[in-house]
Structures are given as C-alpha cells and as structure tokens.
Amino acid sequence: xxxxxxxxxxxxVPEGAIASLNCTYSDRGSxxxxxxxxxxxxxPELIMSIYSNGxxxxxxxxxxxxxxxxxxxxxxxxxxxxxxxxxLCAARDYKLSFGAGTTVTVRA
Amino acid sequence: SAVISxxxxxxxxxxxxxxxxxxxxxxxVTMMFWYRQQxxxxxxxxxxxxxxxxxxxxxxFVIDKFPISRPNLTFSTLTVSNMSPxxxxxxxxxxxIDEKLFFGSGTQLSVL
Lengths: 108, 112
Prior knowledge:
The complex is a heterodimer of chains A (108) and B (112).
Chain A: E1 4-6, E2 11-14, E3 19-25, E4 32-38, E5 45-50, E6 54-58, E7 61-66, E8 71-76, E9 85-92, E10 96-98, E11 102-107
Parallel strand pairs in A: 2-11
Antiparallel strand pairs in A: 1-3, 3-8, 4-5, 4-9, 6-7, 7-8, 9-10, 9-11
Chain B: E1 4-7, E2 10-13, E3 19-25, E4 31-37, E5 43-49, E6 56-57, E7 68-72, E8 75-80, E9 89-97, E10 100-103, E11 107-111
C-alpha cells in the first residue's frame, strides 16, 4: 500500500469553478501535511501546509485535514487557467512522503 | 523560504559517464535532501545530505551510484555515476526550513 494516495486525474474543471483534490495517507504517525503545485517542466512549489484537524484557508486555496479518517483535501475556488498543474500531496512523520499527484486542467 | 540554485538545469549524457549536480542555498540550512522524479511519477527521496558526515541513503539507493557531498551548510553535490538510460530523470535538491520543504529548480538528465 502506498503511503500517500491521490486520485491520479486528470481533473478538468471550467474556469471559475471549484477544483476538489483528495488525498489519503496510511501512516497514523503523520503530523504535517502539505500541498505542492508543479507546473510542467518545473519543480514543486509549496502552496499550503496544514497541521491540525479542520480547514485552513489561504486566498483561493483551502486545505482540509481529518486525521481520524487519514484524509487531506485541497479546494481551489474560482479556478483560473493558471491553476492548471499537477498537485502533489505530502505527509510527514519522520520523513516526507509524496503522492503521485493529480493533474488539474482548468478550461477557459 | 530560501533561494535554491541548482546546476546544470539540464544535460544529455552518454551511458557509462558520470554527472555532478550542484545545489547552492542562499542561507545556512541544517537539512538538505536529494530527490528524483522519473517521468510521469512522483518524488522519491534519494538521500539526506548531512553536513560533515556521510549521507543517509534511502532503500534502493547506494553511495557508489549516488555519491553526495555536503561540505558546508549552504552547498551540496549529487553525482550520478556510471549512468544508464534508467537514470534519466529530474533530480531535485531540497531544503527544510521551518518544517517546510522547499525545492531547487531541478536538473533534467537524459542518458543516451
């Protein structure tokens, strides 16, 4: 079983809609969770971190964490074509484990 | 965060040769890591580069194939030795700052 699992996508959403990305993790010892955005041909860029249960909002991004369900999600509101990228979920216990990523395409 | 410079940004190499990738950070950092991202896949940790001591390698990666240097708190190198086409990948340097991981710009390696 992979340590961090994501829907591989691709996820296609119209401009202005909400993109919803899901991630589950297997290690109950994980304490820190991150979402990275990776444009094609570029390195991953940290966009959100979350450490406690509940929601965390930053601009158009909202991260949600449910440790009981071992579930992390990322919502992108008012999706823009510039949001088209691969989004990587990561969970950290003593080391950081990455999911395979979900590719998002925002249709203009 | 930090400014993390990696070079070369890309290279095409012949089978059996070696390539050394450099990573320079604009501030002193304790934890520095090297990742690999094969085409269409996620990130795999190669090793933790320890300042002043031998690197700590993950399962499946060995020092003879991926020697790492970390002479100080701002610089590290990763060498990909005796390359084969299977080593074609993106190699990423990363640093841990305030419990968050930041990545360099990456080195895209193609082995013919």
